[in-house]
Amino acid sequence: MDLPELVIFDMDGTILDTEAVSLLAFGRVARALGEEMPPEFFRSFMGRNAAAAKRLFDGRFGGRIDFAEAFAMHQGFVDRHMEENGVPVKKGLAELLDGLERRGVKKCVATSTARAAAEKRLAKAGLLPRFMLLVCGDEVRESKPDPEIFQKAAALCGARSEKSLVVEDSAAGALAAAAAGIPYVIVPDLAPLPDWAREGALAVCAELGEILGLFGRNGGWQK
Predict the structure, then answer these.
(1) On the CB side of 17, how many CA atoms lie within 13 Å of its CA?
(2) Which residues in the chain come in under a pLDDT of 50?
């Protein structure tokens, strides 16, 4: 593909190294509520918004635990941790953003996280001004793997889907990008990725800075 008009970034686990913090919070919630919540169950939430997470949560616990209470406990721990320790940023992000800006490529964020939390995290990390706009999980009807969030991001930025690029860490995000007709690059985080997600990607990179190396001399992508 040619140089993209727009790069759409997922947030948690892709540009912010927050999934490990979220996993710790999930464990604390489980202990406080006296329930078993294995890491595999937490990973099933990755890339999904609160409404989709609630469906998974209610399906497992059948109403024994109030999702709103558990979610508030989880968010409280995450917020306190980031207030005390800062918001961790993924390796290579600054290099990638600088490179895209030099090339005149638009950048936005499409995250399953609600807007209030997303803006707070990006602002605390000093990243909010670097993106054209955000599309957040509480602003779409359907969660990833539905393509709605990526389609909305491309439309709001005035970019064609086939001329955009998604950067994701999760299988749900990869499926959403593919369904939206947008090429994607995977930078894996905590959750293992199925073979189809890797095979369908333009590339699988160990860190964000590697994405710049995919540009060919003529401005196209090298796979």
Answers:
(1) 10
(2) none
pLDDT at 217: 55
Predicted pLDDT of residue 104: 94
Residue type, 155: A
CA distance 76 to 99: 35
- Phi, psi dihedrals of residue 182, rounded to the nearest 5°: -110, 125
Phi, psi of 135 (to 5 degrees): -120, 125
The structure tokens 């800062």 sit at: 86
Closest CA relative to residue 113, chosen from 148, 85, 137, 82: 137
User: Which bin fits 194, alpha (ψ -120 to 50), beta or left (φ > 0)?
Assistant: beta
**Alpha-carbon gap, residue 20 to 23, rounded angstroms:** 5
Instruction: State whether residue 107 is helix, strand or coil.
Output: strand
Q: Quick one: pLDDT at residue 140?
A: 95
Does the N-terminal peptide bond of residue 188 adopt cis geometry, omega within 30 degrees of 0? no
What per-residue confidence (pLDDT) applies to 216? 66
CB 117, CB 140: distance < 8 Å = no
Using CA atoms, how far apart are residues 50 and 208, in angstroms rounded to an integer?
26
Q: What is the pLDDT of residue 29?
A: 84
Question: Which two structure tokens, joined as six digits, stand for 111?
Answer: 């995250």
Candidates 181, 171, 162; CA nearest to 1 is: 162
